[in-house]
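Before relying on records like the one below, remember that each one covers exactly one chain. Contacts with other chains, cofactors or solvent are not represented anywhere in the record.
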Amino acid sequence: MIGRNFGLLLTFVKHIPPILAPTTDCDGKSTLMSKHLVSADNAGGKRTEDLLAEIRAEILTRMAAYGEDPRPEAQTVLENNLEIAQLLTDAIHLAEANTKTLAEDI
């Protein structure tokens, strides 16, 4: 089950625009700067779990439009979105655990 879910999550994630942009530090070394996530270079960014929760909320809102649509295609999309929402919930829990772990380490 985990392998299948991981594969679905990877399929979902590959459609999200890249969140890291290549930059160059003061020594001319190539580095990656977060575009969306909080980091030393992006203090205004968001925590992983917060971004995932926002995406999940948008998917759940969109799902309401499919709930009353009798077409089989709409029902397939609804079922897929339910699974995606659950995968995002699982990812949110993991991200929260990471945040807690890092907070304990500091």
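The beta strands are 20-24, 30-34.
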